[in-house]
What we know:
alpha/beta, Rossmann fold, three-stranded parallel sheet, two-stranded antiparallel sheet, Ribosomal_uS2, 40S ribosomal protein SA, ribosomal protein
Amino acid sequence: MEQYIYKRKSDCVYIINMKRNWEKLLLAAHAIVAIEYPANVSVISSWNTGQRAVLKFAAATGATPNAGRFTPGTFTNQIQAAFWEPCLLVVTDPRADHQPLTERAEEIEKEEQAAAEKAVTKEDYLGEWTAPAPGLTATQSEVADWSAGMQVPSVPIQQFPIEDWSAQPATEDWSAAPTAQATEWVGKTTEWS
């Protein structure tokens, strides 16, 4: 804010730099005039002190006023009856009216991302994915009808040894290493040596 202050008096009163403010007012006026339809300009104020100014500005320029509480989702929720997308937002106090600013900024960011995704066309992907692999072009044959039967080379069927699984002992712990089965019982269970 120091750039908009001309000087400070000894009694702590700040004098506004009118030349600097006039330049910024002209810049804002040029931005508002550049909008083709004045109704696409949204003027917002939630404070009582700014509501009268918003209503007078909207009446003079044809902008859409929002004096009072801003309903969240007005710029983003398309299901809402009050949904609309303004081309320009004018707020009286950015700190108090932060909701419309952040909501519109998020919407603009989403629009920019969608435009960037559309910029990458299908042709960019088609050339990359539909090009045949260099080693597979000669050996592949086109199939005209997928429902038709296909000749498969015959392979001899191998006979695997049949094991009697019922003869094997049931293992409680499948992760344990297999233990050797003793064929005859020797000794007593109390002799551990």
